[in-house]
Amino acid sequence: MSAALALGDDALVLSHRLGEWAGHAPVLEEEVALANIALDLLGQARVLLSLVGDEDELAYLREERAFRNLQLVEQPNGDFAHTIARQLYFSVYQHLLYERLAAGGGELADLAAKAVKEVAYHRDHAEQWTLRLGDGTAESHERMQAGLEALWRFTGEMFQPVEGLDATGSGVDPQELEDAWLSAVTGTVERATLTLPTGPRTGAWTAGAGRQGVHTESFGRMLAEMQHLHRSHPGASW
């Protein structure tokens, strides 16, 4: 498995999940914000997947077990707070990772250098909403805490070894990356008057996980929806 495929699948799947908010976001401003983040991720996915093969075939013609995305990004949107919890966990990871890839001079350095500003916005958006919900009403606080708790078990997989995403291939130290992520997320959660979950972060991947093509139940349904049009009209063009 190449790093480009893994990161491309992360971006593609999360882009689709965020696109599902179209017409359903709580305020008009968030319709625009989530759509823009989804488009940023889709652009990253296209570049990354094109390094591996034909981007359309990889997106629309692979079976579920051939996708190498993190289980975290495929999780259903849930309520808005649940989506923000997913965004907080992933965007902090992606921002820290891309910063290191951009500085590492490896195969993905140019892409990371171009994308890191986009990802910095994604991270800021997630952090600001975490603060707003956590330190808001009693209900928003409860929902944000519930989102953090529900997705916590999927975070350990982000720091498992991936070919090309280690110190020898890219200059990225997984342990250092995890420590930086944990510090950043802890700081945001505490400022939001929330509590960082304390449960295990390994249960989602010990028997195989998204990076090995093992996905959660909801992913199959999402993939069927994402691939339906392309598979129904093979060879069609605009």
Task: Report what the structure shows.
- By secondary structure, the protein is an all-alpha fold.
- The chain contains eight helices and no strands.
- Helix 1 runs antiparallel to helix 2, helix 4 (80-104) runs antiparallel to helix 7 (174-191) and helix 5 packs across helix 6 (138-151).
- The protein is globular, with a radius of gyration of 17 Å.
- The chain starts with a helix and ends in a 6-residue tail after the last helix.
What would you say about this model in short?
The protein is mainly alpha-helical and 238 residues long. Helices cover 61% and strands 0% of the residues.
Protein topology:
Elements: H1 3-19, H2 28-50, H3 55-60, H4 80-104, H5 109-134, H6 138-151, H7 174-191, H8 217-232
Helix pairs in contact: 1-2, 2-5, 4-5, 4-6, 4-7, 5-6
Question: How many helices does DSSP assign?
Answer: 8
| Main β-sheet description | none
Radius of gyration: 17 Å
Class of secondary structure makeup: mainly alpha
The coarse overall form would be: globular
